[in-house]
Amino acid sequence: MTIIITAFERSPDGGKGLARDTRVRWALEEVGQPYEVRLVSFEAMKQPAHLALHPFGQIPTYEEGDLALFETGSIVFHIAERHAGLLPDGADARARAITWMFAALNTVEPAILELATARLLDGDKPWSEERLPLVEDRVRDRLKQLSARLGSADWLDGGFSAGDLLMVSVLLRLKSSGILDEYPNLTAYVARGEARPAYKRAFAAQLAINTGKPPAG
Q: What's the Cα-to-Cα distance from 141 to each of 65, 107, 108, 198, 214, rounded to whole Å?
């Protein structure tokens, strides 16, 4: 059965890999599964056909035969469960990798998204100047904790897993802020994720949609 995912017809980030379909693409590339992409416009995302797949009118969605999924965490978990390469074999190590998936999306990402909102959407508000340092400190608190846990290791728990895939994807949102640079081991961690061939293929495919140029190679 052909795997079909949805992605923005034109990504708000211009193809920098921050749209969430990149996470799903990366997971599929890591496990060596071919897939097709159906591009949707912002208008189409609010139409009944897409809402039947994603009740909140967002991307990505994942279709495989009669199975339809939404939410990147759920989709990446499904891919990792069904195909070898993203979860360890041992039961305890597997459970820890899944824990890191939840930590990336539920503990680390919310503070980072709050920062993006504070800078991009609320930057012109009269209270923004006072609020922004507080939001930045919340991000730093999370990064300090994550940095301490990672230490000098390459990945969060042994070998690369779906937990690392989601954590790197989340941290990528901080690259332009300069805050990530304050934690050299996290900067190196993100760079290791970006250097993975599967990530490079996923990034190139997403970029190609926004530039109109086919991926190199």
A: 43, 11, 10, 30, 40
